[in-house]
Amino acid sequence: MIQRRRRRMVAVDKPRKILVCTACVIALVGLLTGYVRVFPSPRASNSSDPHKLPTQHEFNYQKLSAEKKWTEEVAPPHLSEQQSSPHLPKAPVSLHKLLAVVVVRIAAQMKYTPLPTLLKTRFNGAGGNLDSEKLWKLPEARDFVPCIQPSSNYTTPDKTRGYLLVRTNGDLNQMRTGICDMVAVARIINATLVVPELDKRTFWRDTSNFSDVFDEDHFINALANDVKVVKKLPKELSSATKIVKHFKSMSSFKYYRDVIGSLWEEYRVIRAAKFDSRLTNNDLPSDIQKLRCRACYEALRFAPQIEAMGKLLVDRMRSYGHFIALHLRFEKDMLAYSGCTHGLSNAEAKELETIRDETANWKVKEIDATEQRYRGQCPLTPKEVGIFLNALGFPSETPIYIAAGEIYGGVTHMADLRSRYPLLMSKENLASVAELEPFTNHSSQMAALDYIVSVESDVFIPSYSGNMARAVEGHRRFLGHRKTISPDRRGLVHLFGQMEKGLLKEGSKLSNRIIEIHKNLQGSPRRRGGSVPGTKSMEGTHSEEAFYTNPLPDCLCQRASQNVNTSIRQSNRKVDRSMQKEQLLLLKVL
């Protein structure tokens, strides 16, 4: 009996050893091949799509001392300063070396993976396995294309009646949408818009000026036929009497034309005290709505150095094949503001409560964390995101770009997600310290890099529907309804609660339920949602879907032609063929 068991063990162990030896031999060949670079040199874009983010510009970088974070764990080898210049890596990709790296990882994994399971494993990562194509398939765009040109009776700005001063507030995307709304307000009240001042005083303490984050000259020139924009208030008006006006939230065209416009009778300069969410989402003239889209998607592009770095990050993610951009809003400011503490230690929860109490402009101080979570008003935790992605069917080899600032708790809270999806990338480990130096101490500029990668990703998934999530979703809709999966947090929390109670386990049942919940939450064309039925006045206005989350029908029109969006679809479905070939070779080896 004992001999039979030994024979069985030898029978199972022998092929395992053969595979391990094969892996090691291939790894040795790869190592002897020479230098490897993970990322190919960025490819020049041949797309003629006028709505793509602008092309990159040359710029220089300087060095910065490294800051150790969880993001350094998978830093690609091309970032070693001894291997390459701090700007762009130069060496070509070595198939043997990359194959060797993959096989070595597999060989290491074999210690813990039963042989039958290993042999059944299909390497259907983001490179393009047919079984996973449906995961990356675009929602049906139904031939909706941008239509933002003004009507035939739209005129260039007349001699303006005065100057509108704006000081922004909030994070990058709050500032973006607010700036675009103020462009529309300036048009309505016939004002010259002075280039807005960016927020330097609130939580983020970013010292960036407008020209550090956005392409100032392009902004001015692109709006020349809509609104006159100047960089500074004329000197002769610097001592003029100004009125500081609190524009009413979510206000109408009539309010700005009649109430705010009447102020020109006494003043030549109006300063907007607050500027975010000052313009209603709906019931505005068509030309004003189209102007908002021109401002947001054409005029307000990022500064050349940010566009260039963003393009570089996208190219490096593309070298892995299809990828997800995950807006993981598990950051200290978000958790403190929302009062969400699920999965945190008592000490962490206390720290967040202290931050909330000490932040003066956050009005709500007492928050029931459990009630907040079950209402779906908390961001998903990294662990919950991992369960969610797995249930949707994304394989563990899926490359994921983490579009976020510093994750609260770092390695501790990222451990579960990383164990499920090892290819977690971020700007910090896709770029060298020297490449990121110009942006590192500026939260708005770092957020802009995440914005660019998120817009250009194959799939965008936000863990929370905040300002960035809404802005990116709207931009992706404008560019051809690129796939955006919006988690139903309330529904997911209910399922996660059942799992915690032992009533539900990961597997086909959970997967089927999550897929069913989200089949209509993937960015398909639909008209922008209005106010919630039964709500009145301002309450109803605030319950509307935000204009910049879904610019349909104002800025997207359906055309009869069958091939309207061909270029957009082709660019989004493009797969890195070299990655496919390498995976096929790996399958043959195994």
List the helices and strands and how they pair.
Blueprint: H1 2-33, H2 95-109, H3 115-120, H4 133-136, E1 144-146, E2 162-166, H5 172-188, E3 191-194, H6 210-213, H7 216-222, E4 229-230, E5 242-245, H8 253-260, E6 269-272, H9 286-299, H10 304-318, E7 324-327, H11 332-338, H12 346-358, H13 369-374, H14 382-392, E8 400-402, H15 411-420, E9 424-425, H16 427-430, H17 433-436, H18 443-456, E10 459-462, H19 467-478, H20 489-500, H21 508-517, H22 537-542, E11 556-558, H23 566-573, H24 577-589
Parallel strand pairs: 2-3, 2-6, 3-4, 5-6, 7-8, 7-10, 8-9
Antiparallel strand pairs: 1-11
Rounded average pLDDT: 78
Tell the overall outline. globular
Residue runs with pLDDT of under 50 for 5 or more positions = 4-12, 29-130, 562-590
> What's the Cα radius of gyration?
26 Å
Indicate the multimeric state.
single chain
What would you call the structural class? alpha/beta
Question: Roughly what percent helix?
Answer: 40-55%
The span between the termini is: 33 Å
Strand segment count: 11
Number of helices: 24
Instruction: Record the strand order, biggest sheet.
Output: 4-3-2-6-5
Query: Biggest sheet, in brief?
Result: 5 strands, parallel
Note the beta-strand portion.
5-15%
